[in-house]
Amino acid sequence: MTRTARIATAAACVAASLALAGCGGAGNGAEGAGSSTLTIATMTLPQSLDPAVATGSALPFFQTVYDTLIKREPDGSFSPMLATEWKYNADRTELALTLRGDVKFADGSVFDGAAVKANMERFQKGGGASAKWLSDLEAVDVVDATHVTLKLKQANPALEFYLSDAPGLMANPKQFANGDSLTTTPDGTGPYRLDKTRTTVGTKWSYKRNADYWGKKLPYENVTISFFDNETAISNGLKTGQVNAALLQTADQQVAIEADSRIKTQKQEIDFQGLLLFDRGGKLTPALRDPRVRQALNYAVDRDTMLDRIRQGRGATTDQVFGPETQAYDKKLDSYYSHDPAKGKELLRKAGYGNGFTLKLPRIQAIVNDALASSLQSDFKAIGVKLVWDDLDGASAVQKVFKDRAYSGMVMNIGQPTSDWAAANDLVTPGAFNMFGTTDATTQKLLPRIQTGAAAEAKSAAQELNQHLVQDGWFVPFYRMSYLHVSDGTVKVTPQSGMAEPSIYNYAPVK
To answer: Whole-angstrom Cα distance, residue 408 to residue 452?
Structure first.
């Protein structure tokens, strides 16, 4: 992946973190909900409806108008969508897809193997936030209209996961030559069409049912997704009937909404917040080169107190970046590091930093609020580390953190893919979150086994990698967060495995 693509990835992740953290400001009203209309409120703002730049956090905006090659069910399993069958070859360097032959785009053009090839090559080369996910794609061999083979440079066990996400969205190739037309005029094969007469880009996107949809019709004639820039406005919208369903991330709003008996709620534990250490090679902060220093930072953090005071206990403390739905996850690693400042100080002394050192980190207020900033500063001070916050806004953070590489780490909210390889690829291989490309003998040994090994070997390697990352202090996770799916009582919301925002298919009227 090019450096430009890595920066785009980083920008999208910062934007997602901002949304997950909750931004201040005035809310935007959504249209009133009717019996045949589903109105969803979100704090994710898509920059475009062109699938070439789609991101997982904004996937519902795209799922309305575009189908993916493979569908990801709520429990994380995969089922047919535009592809009816798929099969890897023996070494998982080829994935053969059988496509539906009865699907058309909005203008009547036929969806076929050539469309798959055009979309995947465009996504791979487009520099979008998720372009890295197709970095292993070497060629798309179109056998005939309903059969294609994806040929890979090396095995990629996460390909099914990726094809059920942004890289699997299929747009009409006839629009690719029309400049930025797909940005505001999507052309896909999905269950809805964008209703431009009722859409206000940046505020509200309205979709009406695709009468010619090839698949099972979704239960709502119309879907509206409205952007809000704060959760107070979302909660008010639920109470006044402007909104049918939403996701609430902040503890204060969760507590407040639960007090309203009219609102239906459902918890989902997903994503983690923590300090991502980029500079394990010590380029900017030499002390971080020593694993004992990184371990000391982990011992310094009082995770239980942070979870209690910052999230009112809504979540679960953790010392690992792999989520519970991965094979790498080990419950024992959630509590590997106790809160032990004395042990942290001793580790620093043994590493040659008995007098401490200074760690400068970027701070975006929407992600690191005053309570979190003060807590982390106090915890690090207790072991002799001076934490200096550099206040930034979202735009300057993308420039200084990911382009200028000016910091040794950053506190962020990070999603946890259900695929072990997807998680390792995001956080461990060189890229936005390993911007200096640091590695060691253990990761070099284990990553290929996760990527190419048979099921049992890949699982064992993933578990070993997870243990190594924790023990070696690659990251400083704080806790997994508990989010709340809320509705006005007329809608049943099914949480989506591996995603904070439910898929568009996961909403149904309450019977």
So the answer is: 31
